[in-house]
Design brief:
The chain is α+β, with helices and mostly antiparallel strands. The protein folds into 2 domains: 51 residues, no CATH class; 80 residues, Winged helix-like DNA-binding domain superfamily/Winged helix DNA-binding domain (Arc Repressor Mutant, subunit A, Orthogonal Bundle). It has 5 helices and 5 strands; from the N terminus they run E-E-E-H-H-E-H-H-E-H. The chain has a 3-stranded antiparallel beta sheet with strand order 1-2-3, covered by helices on one side. Helix 3 crosses helix 4. The longest helix is centred in the N-terminal third of the chain and has 14 residues.
Amino acid sequence: MTTRWMDSPIGGLRLHVSAGLLTRIEFDAVPRGRRVHDDLLDVVEGQLGEYFAGDRRDFDLPVANDGTEFQQKVWSELRTIPYGETASYGEIAVRLGYRPVVSRAVGAANGANPIPVVVPCHRVVGSNGTLTGYAGGLERKRILLELESPGLF
């Protein structure tokens, strides 16, 4: 596994890649060690930089899908939520063929997403459109949603 730190409008991020796949993005990272050269990390950092600058709406990155079958289904569905739009946990459940009561399980899978921003778990909101739980904190979620759709929150 190779890692790199990058600064962003939502704080320091630690990017993890392994075997040609983006495996994890961690919040609240601090710089450490020397900067390691890695072609995939260069691409990941570049695409994230473009996203934060408002120049990228979609990511074209190879991502790992290390999770349960249900988590993988949820994470795949998250990637279909368009830039600047949101969906509720219940809506995601219904899109996956479940009843809306499965929204708690969707929320748990959403919270376990190891690749935030790229797999846009920040685009999932409460059934009444309010900001609800986010592994990176609600302030980060608000910043990301505002970046994509100014004035939304």
